[in-house]
Design goal:
Blueprint: H1 8-17, H2 26-43, H3 58-66
Length: 69
């Protein structure tokens, strides 16, 4: 799902499926924040240098490489 497709109704539905209820209007506010957050992470130039998604355990390997030696 692209960030541009997120709506308040979508966020409310996704959270309702997980058993999380929201106050009226909160879904729209969360959708706006998620759009900004997702957009910023997609534009991050450092993200392209990370190979965390290259293989299933890439995240674990990335964490191991970041540990203080």
């Amino acid at each position: 799902m692209a960030a541009k497709q997120l709506t308040g109704d979508t966020v409310e539905t996704l959270l309702a499926v997980q058993g999380v209820g929201l106050a009226p209007g909160r879904g729209e506010r969360l959708a706006q924040g998620l759009k900004a957050s997702i957009g910023a992470s997609l534009e991050d130039p450092a993200r392209s240098e990370l190979e965390l998604d290259a293989e299933p355990c890439g995240f674990v390997l990335g964490l191991q490489q970041c540990k203080a030696k």
